[in-house]
Amino acid sequence: MKKAIIFFLVTTLWIGGCESSGSKDGEHTQPSTKYAKTSEQSTNEASAHKEDGEKYVTTAENENGQTFRVISAYEWVDQYVKKVEDIESKSERFKLWKKVVMDHTQNQCFSGASSQLVEDYVYSPPANLGKIKSQNKVLNVSNIENLTIKALKASSNKFPGPNTIVCILPQEKANYVGLSIGAGRISIFYSSSYSEVLLKSTIAHEYHHSTWSAKYAENYKWDLLGNIIFEGKAEYFASLLYGQPPTAVYNYMNADEEKKLWNKAKSVLHSTDRKKIHTVLFGGDKGFPSNFGYIVGYHIVRDYVESHPNTTIEEWSKLSPKELYEASGYEDSF
């Protein structure tokens, strides 16, 4: 997506490596939930198979013909880890990373309008092999592919969008759950500490970003208000499906505190300065709590929909930030 300041969720933090001290999309501590793979398969369920010579692909489609491909990219990472343990040379490790992982996944998992967001993952092989082994051990006995398909189907039934690819990768240095790098492109960075509801709500959040990008990204104004509303729409969409947005855990402000901080943020709402946007959006600095912009964005969108109950998801999703904010009644809620 052109001029995107961020493109993820939950997914909430800056992908290039913690420029903000706040947490990023999906960096939440949740109860650990392990999953058991199911052997049940039918025409209505996802089925793993080889397609066009590819391994580790799970495909499905919804009733309207929208297709989903879940790529178990962690399987390629697992192969890399098994081969790299006796290699000390950084250059040789990178060559192996490219051959084993990137040559099989880059086009589908790391290419998109905002592919710069995943450059660090592409060009820096994982260093903590023990952590990768641990995450892959859980992934290999999980049903995360079917969980992902179910979340995608639920999301697409509410907000039809483009054919979508989701790549599942083990989390090492990434400190977020998921991100979207463009229309129809989502990556999930798995940790065994993530609960099932966090994973599903993150997928819904990123799916909204992905579908919104396919429909409304052109000429969008990426100032602070634009970023807040962009994330708020995805947070609210996830809450419609799973009861709370991914960043709900950070909503510890009372109304007076939120009002005070919002009045502080209002002075830079139309700023396109990256540092100022990060400060307010991700928080953790200058008095703003973690994920402040996500929480406020969620409240603004929620207040708009509650005061316009007949508005469809499609209608509020395409509203400009200015239109939605001014008609939300958000400040009256204080």
Automatic annotation (TrEMBL):
Pfam families: DUF2268. One of its GO terms (biological process) is proteolysis. Keywords: Hydrolase, Protease. GO terms for molecular function: peptidase activity. Residues 148-324 form the DUF2268 domain. It comes from the Bacteria. Residues 20-55 are annotated as: Disordered. Residues 29-46 have a biased composition (Polar residues). This is DUF2268 domain-containing putative Zn-dependent protease.
